[in-house]
Amino acid sequence: MNEFVRLCSEHMGLSAHQWGDGSKLAVLLHGMADDSTTWRRFGQTLAALGYRVFAPDLPGHGRSSAMPGSSAEEFTTAVLDVLPREPDLAVGHSLGGMVLSLLAADVRATRTVYSETLFRPPPYGDLTAGELADALASSVHPVGETGRWDPKTTAGFLHDIGGTDLTPDPMTPSLVQYAESGVISGSEAARLRRAGLITRSVPGADHAPHVSSYDEFLSSLDGWI
Q1: CA–CA separation, 214 vs 161, rounded Å?
Q2: Domain presence at residue 225
Q3: Residue 22 lies in a domain
Q4: How many domains does the chain have?
Q5: Which of 12, 29, 112, 126 has the fewest Cβ atoms surrounding its Cβ within 10 A?
Q6: What is the 3-state secondary structure (H, E, C) of the chain?
Q7: Residue at 188 is within a domain
């Protein structure tokens, strides 16, 4: 099964892709400026392994509604409204990993993977959300075959969590993937290990390992899927 669905919640309309109809459940959250189609290959792999895969377009991405200037709480609540609870596996890439870390206690995944996720985003000081949106629009580029992206929606979320420590609670078994992009430095990987998380590098990968280095990305998930 490869299905596109439109979901309506109390807060907004979100779109999603689904793959497979197995007995296990996986939730995939994409990165900034991308959408659920970036997970197509991985979704099909998981479906072949017996998963039912749910991958939403985050607010302001793909075919989901925009929420310009929304707070982090509004952004994450809109996502939480449509996510199935207690999946066997939850994976978040970059921005999706930030969202997943904020929702972890509500989603209650059996195993979680954070791919190239910045857990300590910088404070933005005097930079307004509008100025941050302009900066994102000029510097961030999609890695997949994404459609629409609204930087103002993302900027509202990021501006709100700037300076926040999003390090996941190790009570949920969590794997952190890091590539050669520098998003997660060696010292940061060491800090995460001390915090009780498992870290694995993805050799040769850029910021989107599931796109640039798929075989290595998949190998780093050995024992997790």
Answers
A1: 30
A2: no
A3: yes
A4: 1
A5: 126
A6: CEEEEEEECCCCEEEEEEECCCCEEEEEECCCCCCHHHHHHHHHHHHHCCEEEEEECCCCECCCCCCCCCCHHHHHHHHHCCCCCCCCEEEEECHHHHHHHHHHHHHCCCEEEEECCCCCCCCCCCCCHHHHHHHHHHHCCCCCCCCCECHHHHHHHHHHHCCCCCCCCCCCCEEEEECCCCCCCHHHHHHHHHCCCEEEECCCCCCCHHHHCHHHHHHCCCCCC
A7: yes
Residue with tokens 């509008």: 130
CATH assignment of the domain containing 98: 3.40.50.1820
Residue count of the chain, please give it.
225
133-169 confidence digits (pLDDT tens): 999 999 987 776 666 899 999 999 999 999 999 999 9
Half-sphere exposure of 60 (CA within 13 A, CB side): 24
- pTM value? 0.94
pLDDT at 68 over 60: yes
Residue pLDDT, tens place only, 204-225: 999 999 999 999 999 999 999 9
